[in-house]
Every structure is written in structure tokens, then in C-alpha cells.
Amino acid sequence: MTHQRTLTTAHWGVYEVEYDDAGQAVRLHPFSKDPDPSPIGLHMLSDEVARLRVRRPAVRKSWLEHGPGSHPERRGQEPFVEVSWDEALGLVSKELARVKAQHTNRAIFGGSYGWSSAGRFHHAQSQVHRFLNSIGGYVRHQDSYSLGAARVLMPHIVATMEELMSMHTGWDVLAENCKLFVTFGGVPRKNAQINAGGATLHHVKGGLYAMRDAGVRFVNVTPTGEDLDTGGDVEWLAIRPNTDAAMILALCHTLFVEKLYNREFLDRCTVGFDKFTPYLTGETDGQPKDAAWAEKITGIPASRIVALAREMAASRTTVSIGWSLQRSHHGEQPFWALITLACMLGQIGLPGGGFGVGYGPVNLMGSAHPKYSGPTLPQGKNAVSDFIPVARFTDMLLNPGGKVSYNGQDLTYPDIKLVYWAGGNPFHHHQDLNRLMVAWRKPETIIFHEQFWTPAARMADVVLPATTTLERADIGYGSREPFLIAMKKAREPIGEARDDYWIFSELARRLGQGDVYTEGRDTMAWLSHLYELSREKSAAAGVTIPAFDAFWEAGIAEAKGENRDPVMLASFRADPAAHPLKTPSGRIEIYSEKIASFGYDDCPPHAVWLEPIEWLGGKTAERYPLHMLSDQPTDKLHSQLDHSPHARATKIKGRQPITLHPDDATARGIAAGDLVRVFNDRGACLAAARLSDRIRPGVVRLSTGAWFDPADAGSNRPLEKHGNPNALTLDIGASKLSQGCIAQTCLVEIERFDGPAPAVTAHRLPEFRPRG
Ligand SMILES: Nc1nc2c(c(=O)[nH]1)N[C@H]1C(S)=C(S)[C@@H](COP(=O)(O)OP(=O)(O)OC[C@H]3O[C@@H](n4cnc5c(=O)[nH]c(N)nc54)[C@H](O)[C@@H]3O)O[C@H]1N2
Ligand SMILES: Nc1nc2c(c(=O)[nH]1)N[C@H]1C(S)=C(S)[C@@H](COP(=O)(O)OP(=O)(O)OC[C@H]3O[C@@H](n4cnc5c(=O)[nH]c(N)nc54)[C@H](O)[C@@H]3O)O[C@H]1N2
Ligand SMILES: [Mo]
Known about the structure:
Blueprint: E1 6-10, E2 13-19, E3 25-30, H1 47-50, E4 58-60, H2 61-66, E5 80-82, H3 85-103, E6 108-109, H4 124-134, E7 140-142, H5 148-157, H6 161-166, H7 171-177, E8 180-184, H8 204-213, E9 217-221, E10 235-237, H9 244-257, H10 263-269, E11 270-271, H11 273-281, H12 291-298, H13 302-314, E12 317-321, H14 332-345, E13 354-356, E14 387-389, H15 393-398, E15 403-406, E16 409-412, E17 418-422, H16 426-429, H17 433-439, E18 445-450, H18 455-458, E19 462-465, E20 474-476, E21 483-487, H19 500-510, H20 514-518, H21 523-540, H22 548-554, E22 556-558, H23 570-574, E23 588-589, H24 593-598, E24 626-629, H25 645-648, E25 657-660, H26 662-667, E26 675-680, E27 683-691, E28 699-702, E29 719-720, E30 747-752
Parallel strand pairs: 6-17, 7-14, 8-9, 8-12, 9-10, 11-23, 12-13, 17-18, 18-19, 24-28, 25-27, 27-29
Antiparallel strand pairs: 1-2, 2-3, 4-5, 4-19, 15-16, 20-21, 21-22, 24-30, 25-28, 26-27, 26-30
The structure holds ligand MGD (2 copies) and molybdenum atom.
């Protein structure tokens, strides 16, 4: 007997759920329509994944016995006591009411950053924000770890990152028209497994291979030659990390002195070029930003930089940049320099020419499917105006009342007493986790909703068990994906897990705001309501989707409509007056008067090269001579599913592999598979050596995602046992403009670890104690 399969959606793809005769979901299969499905989620139903579920509401022992604020230094080390839902909801609602009454809603941090799961209604971050708004507001965050620097810079000079991401020229147009594709930071297909809300058809492999078949030439500027696979030849320029701005400026310099730039485009579509050139030529500081200068900084031969500039000017060229480049100190600069270079080439708005701000980071960019907006849960109004740039979380906890510059404003850090998190893992995403562990002792109460006993959940006071996408009904939608997915509930929740929506509804009810939060709808009523709102908006944008009942019955819907803007910024190029940008001048700003008015020494009004605080050309490299890149993991999304069989199979001796050049390994007596200690002044972690000659000597790569596993959570700077790079990274802002995270600016040293290796304990359950 065969059974009807249902579909489910994760950020990394759609899966088909197989059922047995008893109607139990037993297996997941790749989505049959997807040309390049991702294996990340195939084990989501497995026992190994279920083993680490949070099964019952749990409260840290001292907090339960002695109340909020008791022994915060014991977070992460003390046992939990499991309690009933009724008791847990009573404790949480009473504590929220106490903090509101004693300290106001300005003492509640609900920034709650994180990717949560796919599914538009149960999106945990939206749910927690809607809930906290319904009870009087919370201190929020702005921007993301993904795009701290670029998200703040780009609207000043071109357009918001959201707009730019959704208007990238499609892979089909690139294959037909582009002749030379130059990328800074590769086009990593491992990253394009993901699209926020759910990739449905993975098109990056097909896109790149079609470009190769059409004869496009590829140049990849990156410290790791492993991040671009076209199935054919790629020229790899192994640049020193964090020096791309210097290389791009030198490309601009060659175009300028050889008069290879497009004056007509600059005059018509940009402002400020003539205020930038005195810096480029060295008139302002005595240093021409020429190829010889850039060679010393970047390690790329001057002759190759000069020749590349000529090749770019002579052919239809797209220049692309990965997001990791702006997750670095002064990370605004490579982006601004790239836009400046693209303006000088003058091919913006032409098919196959211009720029991309990330082909590769996610599946969205390069999609030829129509643009329309999907269902979103309204979050209501926040009565609290305080916010922080997202990556300044530790600074906020450590410095209440302290000041921080941000995008032309002076912000004051609020005094946080209660932290509420649903759908994120700060002990994954934040930098310098040893510093965060100290700051984490400051709040009186930390509440988490979690599916799994993650490192962050273990560090909380109250943990409420949340369902997974397989245990609830929802709608799958990813930007510029062709399909909407009816995510049918595939199985009953494990343990006593409840939907975030149910938890917040109950809390809102206890706090007298039940109707405000639920508007009287249950899950299915919300799904059809949000879907129908999205259908109306789509129709206005010329995209048709079927009515909700037909969609739910069929299990899938295709969004039909035209791809109206197949070439990025084509209408702007054709007539900038009729299609102005939202910048102050309406044009691309090579020089920004607005940013000039902020007067920031670390983000001047045009693209520049500024030395990062740590890099291979600086002083710290004498002690820590290896630049550590912490890129996104191939086998999972951030920390999600780190314990699944798929991700565990990539570990060596249970640790995260760190990639080193064989010369760097030999110099340190390290062989492939050896355990190593990676360290700097901020911390140390264990990892396992993986050797590759596809990495620039002096650079190492330790992907993120291994669950943070400090040997002794109570001590300062404990040894991290599992291979989590954020035990080592630096926690300062990219600049006063953006305050973005700078995970990619980090020097380390490595040695072979010969001692008895401490066991990895990250995937063990915490200790539970009966009450009393
Ligand atoms: N060193 C270094 N650090 C980095 C980066 C880097 O490049 N280098 N990258 C940064 C970037 S770009 C990002 S985006 C961040 C990512 O950081 P996060 O988004 O915080 O990481 P995730 O592991 O995706 O965390 C999501 C959490 O939500 C939980 N969850 C999933 N679904 C639900 C749900 O329905 N309800 C509830 N209550 N919980 C749920 C998951 O179990 C998981 O613990 O990391 C950043 N950190
Ligand atoms: N499988 C998987 N895919 C993901 C994610 C995941 O966790 N897992 N996370 C998603 C998220 S939230 C985001 S924000 C995106 C992030 O997308 P990106 O920021 O683009 O991804 P990274 O993997 O950090 O880096 C990509 C490449 O940039 C190179 N690189 C690093 N530093 C430099 C530099 O200074 N110069 C140059 N030229 N190259 C450099 C690295 O070697 C790496 O190969 O990925 C998304 N995709
Ligand atoms: Mo991200």
C-alpha cells in the first residue's frame, strides 16, 4: 500500500514526508522537483535528533528555589527542575509582571535574534516580538549578524540590501550575456543550500554550470579556493583576508589612470566621483592607491591587478562580493569600493554587467522567478523606542547607561533585567563567547523557548519546550522561490512540547492581553488569513497564487507571473530621473554627504582602505600569525542539527575540522586528523586538522556551528572542547556607522594537542533534579 506523501519546508529545502501503514511519519525524502536538493534535513525525524529535545518545561534550580537573580554565575552548570506547564506559565507571567512593574518594559530585552525555523506563521522571532508588543513592548535589535555593515551602508549609497538582494540579475541572463565574472569570496554552493523561509528549487549549481557551458570566464578572489565550483576552470587569486578594499581600489586606480572608465555613466547615474579621485591618486595623502601599493597589502601581484582591470573594462563584466567580506573590521569598505568599481566600469543595468552583492550566500540571488511578498505575521506596535545594533548585545549587558554611536545617532544602552529568547542561539552567533559568559550573569532572568538543549538553552533560567515544523501546520515561502508549500503537521509533538504560538497565547491571556495577541484565531485561521493577505498583495504585483483552500488541498502552489526586472537596475540606468534610487541624491553615491556629516573617523564619506585591528600585515600577527576565517558550515545551518547524523559524520574525533595549508601544518608538526589547540588572548578551542592546498598559507578556516562546549563554564576563558570559533573571535563593531559583527577579523596560533583530550559534552542532556 502506498501512502500520500506530504511536504515540509526547512530553510535548506523542501522534503517529502513518507508515512507507514499506521499513519506514522517514518522517513524524509528529497523534493522530487528540486534539481539539487540539500541533504542537511534528511535526518530530521531520526532518534539522534529527537534525543536532545526539550521534553518538559524546566527551571534552573537556584532560580526556582530562591527567585530571580539567584546565583546567576551558576547558569550553565546547575541542574534543572522539570515542572508542569501550568507552573511554568505561572512563573513566567508573574516574572514578566514583576519586571514591568519594578523596572518598566525598557528592562526587557526581546531582541531574540536568530533564524528560527521555516514556516511563515510559527516564525519564532515574529511570535516573540508580537507577544512582547502585546504586553507593552521591549528593547529590540536592529540589523543582522549576516549583514551588519552592508545593511547600514548600502541604503546611503545605492539601495537597501533587501531591495538589492531581490533584484539580482538572473543566472539565465548571466549565462547569455556575461563574459567575465569576478567574485570576491566565491559563490559557495554550500551556502546557497539555504534560503530564508525555504529554498524550493536550488539553482546555483545549474546557474554556474550553464555560465561555464556558455564560455564565461571566472576569476575568484578569495583566501580559500574551495568556494567556487563551475565544473570548469576558475582562476583563483588567493588574497590575504580582509584586504579586498585595497585590491578593488587598485582596480579603480588602473581604470582611472588608463582612462578606461565610463565618464558618461558616472555623470548620469552617480554623484561624488570627483571627490573620490584625489584619494585614489594620492593627492590627499601622498599615497596613490595603485597596484604596487595594493600588492603589498593583499599579496596579489601588481601585474595581475593591472591586467584584470583592463580585462574588466574590455568585456561584459559582473563583479560580485560575498557577505563575509563585510563581517569584518571596516567591513563597509569592500562593499563601497565594489560599487565604486562597478560605477567606473559603467555596466550597471546592462545584461550580464554590473555588480552583485552576494551570488552564493543564499539561493535567492540570481532567481528568475517572479517577485511577490509572502505571508507574514504582523508584530504590532512596540511602545519602547530603545534598541541596539544587534551585535552590541554583550556591550549592552556590560554597560547599562553607556553610549554607542550608530548610523548618525548616539544610543544609550538600557539596563536589562530580563532577557527573552525564542528562535536563536546567542551562544552560537555572538563573538567572543567567553566575554558573553561574563555579561550573561547580569540579567535577573533569562527565558528561552527551545526545541533542543542547545548551549544557550542550558544557560537559561526557564526553558519552555517548543515544537518543530514537523509537529505543526504552517506555510513555506522563500523570497523569489516559485512554490508555496502547505506544511502539513506530520506527527504529534515529542514530550510536552507546544507551539510558540500556544505558549505566548497562554502567557498573554494570563497577563490580560489574550485577545490582543490571538485576535481570536487558531492556527488554521491564521494560516488562511495570512495567506489571503499575501494573495491580495501578490495580485497587485501581477503574481497569481490560488485561493487558500485549493492550496492547502493540493499541498503546494506555484506563484505565476512575469519576472519584471530580469536585469538589476536596468530602468534606473535607462532613466535615472524617472527611476531615482532612494539615496539622498537619487543616484549612486560614490561620495556620501550624509556619511560625511556624521564625521566618523572609521567610516569616511567614500570608499577607503583602513587597516583592520587584526590582520596578517599588522602588529598582532607577530604573536598570532594565522588569520582564522569562520565561515558558514556545509553540513548544517549555523548550529541547527549539529547533532544530526549528517553533521556528525563531518567531524573528526568528534571535533569540528579546521582547514590549514600543509606548509603551516608541517611547520607546527601537525598531521591530518591530529587534534589541535587553536588560541589567542581571548580564548582557546580544540579542533581537528584538515589539510588542503586550496587555502592561502597563513589562513585557516574553522566553520561555525559546533555547539559551544566550555570545559568549565564557571572559569574565565575556559578551553572550548568542540571547535567553536566564537571562543576566539573579536567582539567590537565594524565601525561607528554600522556596529556590525566582525567575526572574520581574527588572528590565532595553532599547536598540536597531545594531552589527554577532554570528552565533548555539548550533545549531552543537562542534569535534572527532582524538586526539593
Ligand atoms: N564566528 C562567526 N560567527 C557567526 C557567523 C560567522 O560567519 N562567523 N555568522 C553569523 C550569522 S551570518 C548568523 S545569521 C548567525 C546565526 O545565528 P542563529 O540564527 O542564532 O543560529 P541558529 O543555530 O540558526 O539558531 C536558531 C535557534 O532557533 C531554534 N529554533 C528553531 N526553530 C524554532 C522554533 O520554531 N521555535 C523556537 N522557540 N526555537 C526554534 C534552533 O533550535 C536554534 O537553536 O550566526 C552569526 N555568527
Ligand atoms: N550551509 C549553510 N549555508 C548557509 C548558512 C549556514 O549556516 N550553512 N548560513 C546562511 C547565512 S545566515 C548567511 S548570512 C550566509 C553567509 O554567506 P557568506 O557570508 O558569503 O558566507 P561565508 O561562508 O562566511 O563566506 C564565504 C566565503 O568568503 C570567503 N572569505 C572570507 N573572508 C574573506 C575575505 O576577507 N576576502 C575574501 N575575498 N573572501 C573571504 C571565505 O573563504 C568563504 O569561502 O550564508 C547562508 N548560507
Ligand atoms: Mo546570516
